[in-house]
Design a protein that fits this description.
Layout (H helix, E strand, L loop, with lengths): L2 E6 L8 E5 L5 E4 L1 E2 L18 E2 L2 H12 L2
Antiparallel strand pairs: 1-2, 2-3, 4-5
Length: 69
């Protein structure tokens, strides 16, 4: 699976980051574990899925740089 880095919290390293899967266009999200179980109360998380936390700035920055003309 080929992925392209779209935007991240830092330019290098292992920070929260968005990636695009080249073959499908799907987005992969690298984020922080949600350690507070109370933060996900009411969210049904099916087997094979997980919830991660990413800074809102990453989504906002991607939208500014790639979606807003």
């Amino acid at each position: 699976m080929a992925v392209t880095r779209l935007v991240g919290e830092c330019e290098k390293g292992t920070c929260a980051t968005l990636y695009r899967v080249e073959e499908t266009g799907d987005i992969l999200v690298q984020g922080y574990e949600v350690a507070d179980a109370g933060a996900v109360v009411g969210i049904v998380i099916p087997a094979g899925e997980s919830v991660v936390r990413i800074p809102a700035e990453i989504i906002e920055r991607y939208a500014r740089e790639h979606l807003v003309g």
